[in-house]
Structures are given as structure tokens and as C-alpha cells.
Amino acid sequence: MTNDRGALLAIAERIADSENRVTQLRTRIERLRDEGSDASQSHDMLQILSRNLGNLYVQQSVMRRNAWAFNLAKTG
Fold this sequence. Notes:
Blueprint: H1 2-35, H2 40-75
Helix pairs in contact: 1-2
């Protein structure tokens, strides 16, 4: 179970990092648009990061379900 907790912690850290990067990119996109600059490259990067963040959420959910099922099978 220690490895599962370590893996969950690693994914949680990656999620936090990705969420911070998404927030920074959104701020940058707003600033670029306010300045009248082209924000398409930043917007494309935001889409990629958002997809990656979604994948991390799925990975985290699957790991939690597997840990829950393991614990249920162990006690049942």
C-alpha cells in the first residue's frame, strides 16, 4: 500500500503543478487579448495542458478505485 500512496502523492503533485500552469496560462491569454496581441499559441498550449490535466484526474481516480477495491477484498 505504501507504493500506492507514493504514486497517489506523485499524481497529486503533478495535478497541482498542472493546475498552476493552467491558471498562469489563462492569465497570460487574458493579458495578451487585452493588449490586442495574438494569444493563439498560448491558447493551444492551454488546450494541451487541460487535456493532460484531465488525464491525470482519470489516472488518480483509477488508482483510488483500485486501492479501494484492494482494501475491500482484503477485509471481505
